[in-house]
Amino acid sequence: MVAVELIVRDLAFGLMLGCVFSVVAHGLNIIWGVVKVVNIAHGEFIMLGAYGAYFLNLFAGITPLESAPVNAVIGLLVGYAFYYAFLHRELRNKQTITLQSEMVTLAATFGLSLFISNLAIILFTGNPVGVNYNPGTLQFGYLHVPLAALYVAIVSILIIAGTWLFLEKTFIGSTIRAYSQDVTATELVGANPATVASLATALGFAVTMAGGALLTVWVPVGINPLMGALYAPISFVIVVLGGPGKMWGSLVGGLTLGVLIDLVQAFATAQIAYAAAFLILIPVLVFRPGGILK
Amino acid sequence: MQAKPRRLAKRTTAIIVIAIVAIVIVSGGGTYYYINYVAPRPISCTLPSGRDAIKVGFTISLTGTYNVEGSKSLAGIEAAACWINSNGGVTVNGKTYNIVLDYHDDASSSSNISPLYTSIITQDHAQFLLAPYSSGLTGTAAPLAEQNNLVMLSHGGSSDSIWTKGYKNVFGVLSPASTYFNNAINWLKANHLGDKLAFLHSDDSFSTTASVAASRYAVQQGLTVVYNYSYPSMGTQDLSTQLTAAQVAGADDLLGGGHYADGLKIVQQLSSVGWTPKFISLLVAVTEPQFQQQLGGAANLVTGPSQWETTVTYSPASAQTAGIPWYGPTESQFVDYYSKQANAGSPTYHSGEAGAAILVLVNAIHNANSLDTTAVRQAISGMHIMTFFGQFQVDATGKQSAHSMVLVQWQNGELAVVAPAIVTSGTVKYPYTGS
Amino acid sequence: MNIQKPGLTLYGLFIVMAFLAAAALLFGVAVSSILVFLLIYAALAYSINFITGMIGYVDFGHVLFMAIGSYALATLVSYYGANPLLGVGAGAVLGLVFALGIGLVILRFRGVYFAIATVVLVLAAYNIVLQFPQLGTGGEIIFNLTLQPLTPYFTIWTIVLIEIALTYYVNRSRIGFGIRAIKSEEDAASSVGVSPQRLKLIGYMLGGLFGGAAGGVYSWSTSGVTAGPAFDFTFSLLMLAMIIIGGVGTSIGPLLGAVVVYIPSYFLLTSVAQAQPLIIGLLVIIMALFLPDGIVGLLRRSNERLRLVLE
Hints:
The structure holds 3 protein chains of 3 kinds.
Chain A: H1 2-35, H2 42-60, H3 64-91, H4 99-124, E1 137-140, E2 143-146, H5 147-169, H6 171-181, H7 183-189, H8 193-215, H9 228-242, H10 247-267, H11 270-279, H12 281-287
Helix pairs in contact in A: 1-5, 1-8, 1-9, 1-10, 2-3, 2-4, 2-8, 2-9, 3-4, 3-8, 5-6, 5-8, 5-10, 6-7, 6-8, 9-10, 10-11
Chain B: H1 10-38, E1 52-60, H2 67-86, E2 90-92, E3 95-105, H3 110-122, E4 128-130, H4 135-147, E5 152-154, E6 170-172, H5 182-191, E7 196-202, H6 205-220, E8 224-231, H7 240-248, E9 253-257, H8 260-273, E10 279-282, H9 289-295, E11 303-306, H10 316-322, H11 331-338, H12 349-368, H13 373-381, E12 385-387, E13 390-392, E14 406-411, E15 414-419
Parallel strand pairs in B: 1-3, 1-4, 4-5, 5-6, 7-8, 7-9, 9-10
Antiparallel strand pairs in B: 2-3, 11-14, 12-13, 14-15
Chain C: H1 8-27, H2 29-55, H3 63-80, H4 84-106, H5 111-129, E1 141-142, H6 150-172, H7 174-184, H8 186-191, H9 196-221, E2 224-225, H10 227-230, H11 233-246, H12 253-267, H13 269-272, H14 275-290, H15 294-302, H16 304-309
Helix pairs in contact in C: 1-2, 1-6, 2-6, 2-9, 2-11, 2-12, 3-4, 3-9, 4-9, 6-7, 6-9, 11-12
């Protein structure tokens, strides 16, 4: 019985952690899937989202859940600016992104990640901070579920579902999907490719920064300028697992990772669990380069 | 990325110019901000005139990973040096000297250690050295002290392995990592010998050394260890698996931890997995005031080891009781000098150990009545004194052997010192009750 | 331009290297202890240049090979009392072997997928190292070599010299043409009869070899290795920044980049330490977006004569 109890608990926490991982990676997924660009500075925008939640809590006294939409609005603006500053030059008038443009965007966003994280060290200092948010615990028998983590998991799924609905059911959404498949098709629909691409980038940033706010619930004092260095790789793994551009792929990838980490830990050491969580990327890329989703 | 040779377009040139201007503005602004708001302002301690200088050289991490610990250490060193200079300076052969500090920021990077120490030694001609903060950096600096035959006091390197390399000139002021949990285990042995212990610690070098040594010591003392695992220092979002496993293994008490964030996470998740250990002792996190602010009731009765706290009351009187000489400022004098510095906050144990290093050095110079490395080295080897930081005595390898860690416990919002008996302000309360 | 005859660039680089050797001999330990790290960074920059510069793939995980070299030397020296030169050699060989194994798998991935794979490998390796108590408690090994500052200095000096010559040779040889063909378009490369897969693997293995050697000298010069800093992405990022700023794929670029990035970072430590990585970040952004050939490219464009000479 004891072993079952352990596994149930691990599964519950793994699933909730997986949800927040998913939403953190989801913004990267949107940009990668639509614009075909990997933002190396993704982790830094998660970090900015987390600091957004921290400062909103400090000065406005609102919880991370409430600061997520505020972050999302900021993220829209940041993403829009990001597209025109970093991607527009490389993407305009191109049907598909060339290897060389890919490398240019990688290098440029890498520079951006250095810049933002070091600016953050100066502005926020290296001291880790946190948001105190604890609405209590729910108990099912031996299973204790912290409400904060549960709320965050629900909101994460809602965000992913929302973007899926947006892309599937709205006109703008279908234009974005058209762009992701064929840039010329966008023009046939009568939309400017740059506008569509910038919109998708902005959407991706909005989700990323909202995700940063939600993440603060899991890291009570882990908000620091260098946190992006962990969450960016985690996001990369999740997006590759789920398949770039598949909205539910983020959730599948995130849950796989969360459960993998917690379950492997139950049988091996935690270090092996983390190593496995990162290394799973390699076989997936070798055998299912499109992600584990069909 | 092979570029075709072409002249730069006007627009590109303009963008580059704008970017360069932006760089200048940002870096200028960043520097201004850093210098005015972030960097601790050392005491403007007027050096008594008419004295020669004894130059003490070291690097300290004011930026990079260890910037917080480094800044606290530097402020402690400044406070202690300032106290010495305003209280008679250092007298050698009837001649009085000021302690003058010669330090550089090492940016927490081991690649800066040897160039900086080399320049401190060969160009600035420092006569004595302090080690940098952290074991890794101390390990890098120690061979330089040996090569150049200068005494080096380690105040931030707690790893035991530093003392196994045969260094003649390197001496530790602080208790080594392997002794961190001794107070807690001694107390458990005396009061709850039947308790089963769980160790859960971060996998970095310091936390591993402390926890592994502690579990070995616990077994020697007749306690039972039922769980002993580490978690990756990078992955501290979720420790529920390990906590649950420890509970299932039948553990009564929880020892371990690692960094501030981990300690907080552990206590927070204890309640979410529904385990209330009877006794909790965690590295690093517990001594921070924010620990209690962040956790509220859950922090109550959590204990932790500390090198030193401002509430620890070593005094000239306790030195007399112990039958050893006292040197340096009292605890309140030290705090007073410390707080004269802008942006330094309140002293932590990093400040205490770093300040104590300067005091030990000066006391040894007094005892040796010489500035010669060999004489001072011999004086340090044979010295047994007490400072505000506690006792100082090293063994044959240079490792600290007399200084005692203290055990602290949050009791109703106050951080009480509960062991060892000589400095206690309260007794251990047991069991932990959760939030 | 004559392919066979070495150009001014190579002579210039040799003169710079001769200066570096002379500086260490003449000015003693105060200068050489700074320059040794400049050379280590230059060695790392050249080693990543074999990968990113020549294959055209961005590699964020090169610190992995540096860490392998560091642990190889630290283990041999600390536990077996071996000569550190042997440690450097072991680091190089291990770097090569790991590069072969890893390269066989991840070089199949194109572009961003390769870049991401290099990132996760570092994180996985970091966690795996901590599983081995043999690699020190918590991955920390401290050792005490009675250091002769000039030995590591001339070891790394020799490594950089070999790297320069090799980079120059590869750039000008048939392999170089093949590699440039990969960079412009992989399919084009295979159609003209160069096996891109084999060339990429050669580049990656050279990167691993020299990365491991440089990592060995790094831990030699710092008397130890600690897991956190050894796998610190900062090193990867610095190396990458160096070649992007200096000039990706060129023979001068890595050394130039190492000078531009390391020398200010050392001398500005006490004044504007915080602002320095910020400036590197901005420089990388500008170079990537506007000057894809870095400083070397900028110089080439600015002057017709320089264009012919700089490589």
